[in-house]
Every structure is written in C-alpha cells, then in structure tokens.
Amino acid sequence: MSTSASRIATTMMQGARVGVGRRGAGGAVVVGGRSRSIAARATNTKWMDYKPFMRKLGDSELLVPDICLGTMTWGVQNTEEEAHEQLSFALDCGINFLDTAEMYPVPPTEDTQGRTDRYIATWLKDQARDKITLATKVSGYSDKAYLRDGADKTRVDRANILESVDKSLARLGTDYVDLLQIHWPDRYVPLFGQAGYDPSQEREAVPFEEQLRALEEVVRAGKVRYIGVSNETTFGVCKFAELAAAHSLPKIVSIQNVYHLMARGAFETDLAEACAPSNYNVGLLAYSPLAGGALSGKYLAADPPKDSRLNLFPGFMERYKASHAARATAKYVEVAQKHGVTPTELALAYVKSRWFVASSIIGATKMDQLKEDIGAFTVELPDECLADVEAVHLDFTDPSMRA
Known about the structure:
Order of helices and strands: HEEEEHEHEHEHEHEHEHHHEHH
Oligomer: single chain
CATH superfamily: NADP-dependent oxidoreductase domain
C-alpha cells in the first residue's frame, strides 16, 4: 500500500462526521426532516435526523423509502438476535423495506441456505405484515441444485418459479411477498464484475414470455404483488417490458443492479434510458452502494478489520480490493475529506442523489455501521463535491470492472 493511501486510511478512521441535507426529485415525497449546512458538525447520532424519502416503485403501488435493508449476511456473519436488532432499528427509523433471496445468506452454501429467511420470519410474525414491504428473489441459471427438489440446476421456468415462491413463503412465514425478482437471468449475461459480453458462452435459455407467464401465475394466485429483475441488461429490460405490453402480462417495476462510485457506466447509459419514467419506468434498487464495504476506505488500512467480509471470505468480491479499485477508493476518500464527510457518507449520498435510484440497499454486520449508513442519507453533496467526484470518475472509470 502507498504512503498516501495509508495516511488517508488513518485519517479516515478518525471519523469526520458533518451536517445533513435533503434533496427533491420529481414524483418523490419527503416525509419530515430538516436541513443543515453540509459543513455543520454532528455526532454519531446523525441517523436520528433521517426521515424516509418516499417514492413509488416503477408503475407499482408500492411506496418505498430511499433505504432498503439488505439481509444477505444474516446467518453467516450475523446471528438471529443481531438480525432482529437491525430490523427493529431500521423500522423505528421508518425503513420498512427489506430485501432477501432464496439462496441467502452469502456466500451461499447448502448448509446455510434459507437461514436469512428464517431469521426474518421470526421477526415478521410480531409485525403488522401490511406495513412491511418484503422483497425476495428467485435464483437464475445455476448449479445450486440444493435449492430445488430433484433437479440438477436452477432455471427460471414455470416449475422452478412456482417451487421457489412456495418455499420462500414457507420460510418467511407469510402468504405473499410484495416484490419477486429474478435474481439473475436464465440466459448467459456477464455477471458480478465481468466487463464484456462473450458470445461463446451463450446457451439455450428459457424464453422471456414463459418466464412472464409463470410470474403472472404467482401474481394471480396472490402470492406475489409485483415483479422485478436483478443483474439484468438493457436487452432484458426491453424484452420483458415489450412482451408484457404485447400480451397483457405483469410488468417489471424494478431492477436490482449493482451501482456505486466504482461501477456506474453499466447503468448510467443504456439502462438509465430504458428504465426512465418516460420510457419503461423501472426503478433501480441499487445494491452494493459501498462496493462490499470497500468505499468506506477500511481496506486501505495496512491491517483492515479481520472480521470484515472481504477478509473472512478470500476471493469473495475480490474485484473491490484489486489495485486499480484501491487507487480509486483512495481518491474518493480524499474527496470525502476535502468536503467534510466520511467516505461512507460520500458513497451513499452520491448514489441517493441519482435521479434513477428508487432505493439503495444497505447492509451492515454491526449496529454502528448501520447507523452511519442511515445517517449518510441525511447528507446532500454540494455541486463542488459532485464535480470532484466526476473528476475522479474520469480518471478511474468503473475500476471494479477490471481484474
């Protein structure tokens, strides 16, 4: 690690924490809240100023806050008690939107699969179900045969979708989910940091219309209210939207894709156009807005936390620790210091500020992390800060897409 990066990491750990702000956007509703100068000093209770910024998710009737609580560490890095503490704290803050998946927790294994849902279920039974917006995901094409009965792969066909939904509902202890998303496509697409499309990897895939008709079946059965996609491309969004319109099938209302300071290009160009309210009106649920925690700057330290995700699971999200990504992170840490915010606040406030982001999915393993994450949504970045972010982006365009 360079001397500069070490200095940045040391200073960052001292914790510059500053004021709050709110933004406006077409079609959005601010629930309460008050503004301060971004230069104003604050304590680590900044989360207490958070008020949910609500908006409709795509063409649905779901009104979701700007924060969605992620759950994928529950059952591996977090106990059931810790999961419940996070859920209750988030709900007390007005965050009633949570996202899970049938394969969680992550990294996925047969032994741990389903724990996340079961942790949610034991909390959900004591809540008013109609006050919680619950999203889950059906797995795409994979060799995780343990997710299905008597299968050697997971697919996104009728049988897989029906089985997945029924098992998810049973684990979650509810008779419906508000949003069902296809976790990743059945067809080949570049995934999880792969930078380019390789036609040699194309395979026979379940037709889009077959997927939509199976999703329509679970919607009509009352098991699912709305549908969405995840890790999807512009081509996929357009196909789903056009077929839904042509055959009066359920329309996708959301897309859950990676989006953060080191992974912008894939969404900001073609996908942003396709998903715009004036076109298909598909809301982005931005996952990994901190790049697996890397944008907090903690991995720049000579001795990063041993219990952090990328250290506990060598090779997992390794792209966020690669040299090019580390140099970009160091530059963003410098921007944060210059403007009196923490690196976490810079990263999350930036994602929140984008017009196409309906909600950011945040995840934490510790309560102080969750509080800082929530507090970041009270920060409004000034134009000067945004200009500095763009300057770094020009020098380090999507560094997490590189080896």
